[in-house]
Amino acid sequence: MKVLVDTSIWSLVLRSKKDTQASHHLTELIVEGRVEIIGPIRQEILSGIRIPKQFDQLKTYLDAFPDIPLTTEEYIVAAQSFNRCREKGIQGSHIDFLICAAAQNHNLSIYTADKDFLLYASILPILLYKSEVL
User: What is the reported pTM?
Assistant: First the structure.
């Protein structure tokens, strides 16, 4: 199964100088050709990189992972997911729910260090990859 890697994992791996569990898992996924990304995650990863040379290096690195195209259907599923979770008292960001929708619609698991996804998974039909990172 392919894996949609969330911003939280990319940030952990790219900012850490240690060989972390997240780094090991991400490297394994890259080698196996199982990493997927969507535009909003790419935007979050690149946002806040102030040094143009670092921005360009990271952009070039991420170019190896083409975006899954998002359709109107993903945005509709994201809105429905937001509403379902809110009904149960669970709040989340619009991008989190777009990640959930893309994962659902493209049969992907989600690799994240964001504990909010454990809450979403209790309500939404999403699969989490290696949730021991959470």
Answer: 0.94
Q: Tell me the two tokens of residue 71.
A: 């359709």
pLDDT tens digits, one per residue of 32-52: 999 999 999 999 999 989 999
CA–CA dist 68, 118 (Å, integer): 23
- CATH code at position 114: 3.40.50.1010
Sheet holding 3-5, edge to edge: 35-36, 3-5, 109-111, 127-128
Number of domains in the chain: 1
**In terms of residue numbers, what domain contains 26?**
3-133
**Sequence-separated (6 or more) residues with CB below 8 Å from residue 121:** 127, 128
**Residue pair 43/70 in contact by the 8 Å Cβ criterion:** no
